[in-house]
Q: What sequence folds into this?
C-alpha cells in the first residue's frame, strides 16, 4: 500500500512488480543470465478459437477526460485476432493496430500470418513489393529491377534515366541515347 511497493513472485522472488509512484508499474525478471527477458503473455481461455476471435488486446483510453463524448472512447489499441479457425495444423492470426480520430479506435494497420502489412486498407507491403488498393504495385524483383505495375505510369517533374535506353514493350520500341548523351543524336 506504500509508494514504491514491490510484489515478488516465485520461490526465489525472481519476478517482481514495483509501484512507480504516480505513474504505473515496473515489471522485471530478476534473472541476470544472458537471453532471459521479462515475458508477458496474454492468454485466452477459449477452447475453440474461430475466425475473427480476439486472442488478446491492449487498449489505450482517457476515461476521465473532461470533454466527454468521443474524448473518453478507446483512442488506440493493439489486438491479435484469429484469421482463420484454429486447428491442429494452424493458428493463423493477424496483429491489428487501431487508432481513433473522432470515434472509438478502428483498424488502421495490420500484419497477417503471410507477412502482408496492410495500411488503412489501401496499401499493402510484402517483402520488396508495395501494393495499392487498386492492385497497382511497385515490385523490386530479385533480378535487380524495379517494376511499376499500372495501366498508366505518370511522372511529374524531371525524369532522370541513368543509362542509355528507355524500352517500351520489351525491345519492340525504344528510345536510345548515344554514349555521348547528346539529345541531338536521339534514336527512336
A:
Amino acid at each position: 500500500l506504500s509508494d514504491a511497493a514491490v510484489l515478488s513472485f516465485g520461490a526465489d522472488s525472481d519476478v517482481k512488480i514495483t509501484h512507480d509512484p504516480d505513474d504505473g508499474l515496473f515489471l522485471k525478471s530478476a534473472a541476470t543470465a544472458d537471453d532471459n527477458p521479462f515475458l508477458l503473455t496474454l492468454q485466452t481461455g477459449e477452447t475453440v478459437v474461430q475466425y475473427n476471435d480476439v486472442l488478446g488486446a491492449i487498449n489505450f483510453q482517457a476515461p476521465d477526460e473532461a470533454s466527454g463524448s468521443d474524448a473518453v472512447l478507446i483512442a488506440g489499441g493493439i489486438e491479435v485476432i484469429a484469421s482463420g479457425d484454429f486447428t491442429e495444423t494452424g493458428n493463423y492470426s493477424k496483429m491489428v493496430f487501431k487508432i481513433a480520430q473522432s470515434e472509438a479506435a478502428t483498424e488502421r494497420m495490420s500484419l497477417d500470418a503471410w507477412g502482408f502489412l496492410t495500411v488503412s486498407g489501401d496499401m499493402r507491403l510484402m517483402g520488396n513489393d508495395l501494393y495499392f488498393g487498386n492492385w497497382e504495385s511497385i515490385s523490386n524483383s530479385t533480378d535487380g529491377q524495379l517494376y511499376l505495375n499500372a495501366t498508366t505510369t505518370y511522372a511529374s517533374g524531371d525524369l532522370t534515366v541513368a543509362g542509355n535506353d528507355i524500352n517500351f514493350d520489351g525491345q519492340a520500341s525504344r528510345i536510345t541515347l548515344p554514349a555521348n548523351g547528346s539529345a541531338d543524336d536521339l534514336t527512336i
